[in-house]
Design goal:
heterodimer, A: 224 residues, mainly alpha, 0% strand, flat, B: mainly alpha, MetI-like fold, 77% helix, MetI-like (chain B), MetI-like_sf (chain B)
Chain lengths: 224, 287
């Protein structure tokens, strides 16, 4: 434990997790918005929108996140000159958020679409019968019920997103995994405590989150 | 709701006009976006033939992409075998009646599911050498990390599968005098594996994608060889990333299509697993 008694190391540990939380928070919001929009596109009556949604999902679900993040840095930033902030850390942070969001949105889209499939067809038929348009049917009748049945999958996606945030370390952001690597390299005598502290912090956050979402899913499920 | 068309009526004349207008508006927007991307690429000089030329040369494929793809597939194949074994062992252990087996097994599975794969790879690659006083090859760092993470996810999939087998099956097996291990091996596991086959294959797609993390510890896989090393020689990082992404997409789409085909088959032939909790069917989008 002497490693973390050193205030420099402890601060590095804290700031590493702070980056993870910030990445997770911002990406979760963007991915959710984008994912709902994509899901609405995929079930819409307009073929071009459906095709766009399907293409997005197929491209990002099948490409490794490491490659997506890699491209955000070396492609968007280094080659195409997309700069998002003066500060280097902040720039890498936003590039990471872009990568995580576009990738995670594909999974959110699929989860919500599977949720839409759990809503009985009669509900939408009734909505149509009273004259609601497609957008109204989706917004007022179908999506609220779908949302309640996708709590558990969305929870899994959030947890995966938090773990995936470590991949932004690839482009130089000093998040947890990079901090752990540095600490291990300079403290070879304490590799096991270092790993247990970092891994344990993730486990301490994420295992309860998993149970919380499981409990919420049971509570919110539409009883049919 | 099985078909999406339930959400809207068969389009009449007005709806058809509206859809056509929407198609046009969105289509124009999309084309404008693509044009903008094209212009940005153009300004950065990304369409120069010299950047795309390497993909017409055999050397690019024989020296960079193919060796990288082979290394990716090797790590994925070994990782798949080991994580399937890990998954079966820990699923059975977690269902054991002996609490001194089931509780530690549960703790191991929960722990490795919650820890980012990258932390495990870093620990094996940078940390373990201090413990064993010798280097760990990048290949094993990647494979061990993949095995622990995906094995834990698969253990949960198998457990859900075993529990979805109707209870009468095990009772009948006990009634004809089978021992517990026989019931598990001969009755429960084969059916669970079959019922969970699509989930298992989807998890193997995740595993294949995760091998890209090998790039971070300099394992010469597809991202390392086909994008990083190739672009270091040719300066065509955008082009290389696009080509390699296309390769990943093709391979993973094939595996996903295989999973879909299997799912159709298992639904016809095996017993119908009572719809597993949605949690178990959603593959965790790691890496």
């Amino acid at each position: 434990m002497h490693v973390f008694a050193d205030p420099t190391n402890f601060d590095a540990f804290l700031s590493g997790f702070l980056w993870i939380l910030k990445l997770t928070g911002a990406s979760a919001v963007f991915a959710l918005l984008l994912g709902v929009l994509l899901a609405a596109m995929r079930v819409s009556p307009v073929p071009v929108l459906r095709g766009f949604g399907a293409a997005w999902v197929n491209i990002f679900r099948n490409t490794p996140l490491t490659l997506v993040v890699f491209f955000c840095y070396f492609g968007l930033f280094s080659t195409l000159g997309l700069s998002l902030a003066e500060d280097l850390d902040l720039n890498n942070y936003w590039l990471g958020v872009i990568g995580l969001s576009v990738y995670t949105a594909a999974f959110v889209c699929e989860a919500i679409r599977s949720g839409i499939n759990t809503v009985p067809a009669g509900q939408a038929e009734a909505a149509r019968a009273i004259g609601l348009t497609f957008a109204q049917t989706l917004r007022i009748v179908v999506l609220p019920q779908a949302a309640r049945s996708v709590v558990a999958p969305l929870g899994s996606i959030l947890i995966a997103l938090c773990k995936n945030a470590t991949i932004v370390g690839t482009i130089g952001l000093m998040e947890s995994s990079n901090v752990m690597k540095d600490l291990i390299n300079s403290n070879g005598d304490a590799v096991i405590p270092i790993f247990l502290v970092f891994a344990g912090t993730f486990a301490a956050f994420l295992i309860p989150t998993g149970y919380l979402f499981g409990w919420l899913a049971n509570r919110l499920a539409v009883k049919r | 709701m099985s078909t999406n068309s339930v959400l809207y009526d068969h389009p009449g004349p007005r709806a058809r006009t509206r859809n056509a207008v929407l198609t046009l508006v969105f289509g124009v927007g999309l084309v404008a976006l693509l044009w903008w991307v094209y212009r940005r690429f153009d300004e950065a000089g990304q369409w120069e033939a010299s950047l795309w030329q390497p993909f017409a040369e055999p050397a690019t494929w024989t020296q960079f992409i193919w060796p990288g793809l082979r290394a990716t597939l090797q790590a994925a194949a070994v990782g798949m075998l080991l994580s399937l074994a890990f998954g079966i062992v820990f699923a059975v252990a977690r269902l054991s009646d002996h609490r001194w087996i089931s509780i530690p097994a549960g703790a191991v599975v929960e722990f490795f599911r919650a820890v980012p794969l990258l932390l495990m790879i870093f620990f094996v690659f940078y940390g373990v050498p201090f413990l064993i006083q010798g280097p760990v090859p990048a290949f094993w760092a990647v494979v061990i990390g993949l095995t622990l993470y995906n094995g834990s996810v698969l253990a949960e999939a198998f457990r859900a599968g075993i529990r979805s087998v109707p209870g009468g099956q095990a009772e009948a097996a006990y009634a004809i005098g089978m021992r517990k291990s026989q019931v598990m091996q001969l009755i429960l596991l084969p059916q669970a594996a079959r019922a969970m086959l699509p989930v298992i294959v989807s998890q193997l797609v995740v595993l294949l994608k995760d091998t890209a993390l090998g790039y971070i510890v300099a394992y010469p896989e597809l991202l390392q060889r086909g994008v990083n090393d190739l672009a270091a020689n040719r300066g065509n990082i955008v082009a290389a990333a696009i080509v390699v992404a296309a390769i990943y997409i093709v391979i993973n789409s094939l595996l996903t299509a295989f999973a879909g085909w299997l799912s159709g088959r298992t639904q016809r032939r095996a017993f119908r697993a009572p719809r597993p909790a949605t949690d178990a069917t959603v593959v965790e989008p790691q890496g």
